[in-house]
Structure formats: structure tokens, C-alpha cells
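My current task is to audit a protein record that another person submitted. Please read both lines and tell me whether the C-alpha cells look consistent with the sequence. Do not assume that whoever made the record got everything right. I have pasted the whole thing underneath without changing anything:

===
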Amino acid sequence: MEIRKAHMQDVEGMHALINNYAAQGLMLPRSRNALYEGIREFTVVTENDRLIGCGSLHILWHDLAEIRSLAIDPEYVKGGLGRQLVERLLAEAASLGIPRVFALTYVPDFFARCGFRQASRDELPQKVWKECINCPKFPDCDEIAVVIEVPLPAEKAPTGEALPEKEKEQGKAAG
């Protein structure tokens, strides 16, 4: 079994897996076009060259990302692959210096076992919800928000500054 970043040839398997769950009302569907455009966000699980899981880390802001399209082949559910995939996505967030990750889900208990806590939608910035306007469930979303604070390596820890000093100085000079 291998967990790795997605490749273009994974899109058909990702599309089938995600849309199988979407047809059951368990997640949002994804078009092939959206998968191709977002391929860099996806991590996949394969076994014997067969795609058996996928998930994406969608970056929303310098300090916030969302886990999306987390799907495991039904034959492999309950085998710990979902947790391994979430751990890989959280490690990716940490390596990028992103201290907070959330998901919108119908299975908050799974995410709780991965260290997430339920969150009020008010805890998440309004900029997150700008993407919801195109959702077929908007404004009556029934998914549950879960959040986790990601431990960052010391060199990735936030300094309290939103912009590097050089960019601040350039902004002052331009203004």
C-alpha cells in the first residue's frame, strides 16, 4: 500500500470514488475538470496500482486549510486508511506552516478520533463561507464543522505577522 500525492492518471479513480459517495448524499460531487484543476491538492492511497482512497488539503488562507473529498473504497473502510490519509494531510499542513485545519462532514465521530473537535460555524472566518454560495445545499448546509489545531515545527510557527517585513516596507513605500 502506498500513500502519495495524486497524479493525473488517478483522476478517473478519484472521480468514481468521490462521486460514489456523493450519489449517496455523503459528500459533494466533484467534476473531472475540478479534479484536474485541483490535482496538486490531492493525496491518494493505492494498492497494487488500484486507487483505494483520496483526500485533499485545500488552502484558504495563510493560517487555514480544509480537508475535502476524503473517500476510502468501501472494501477498505474500517482498516485505518482514512486516519492515515488525514494524518498525511495534517502533516502536509504542518510542513506548509498552516496551524488550523477544518472539515465539513457527516461523520464527526471519525474526525474526533483523529483529534478534531466540533466547531461552531461562527469560529470559521466568513471568507470560508464564500465558497459555499455555489453549493447545492446552500444556505441549508447540514454538514458539521470540525477543527484541529496543527502542531507546527518551530521554524514554521507563526510570528504574529501576516506579512513578511519586506512586504510591509514595500507597502509603506508604495502608499
Notes: The chain has a mean pLDDT of 86. The radius of gyration is 17 Å. The first helix runs from residue 11 to 23.
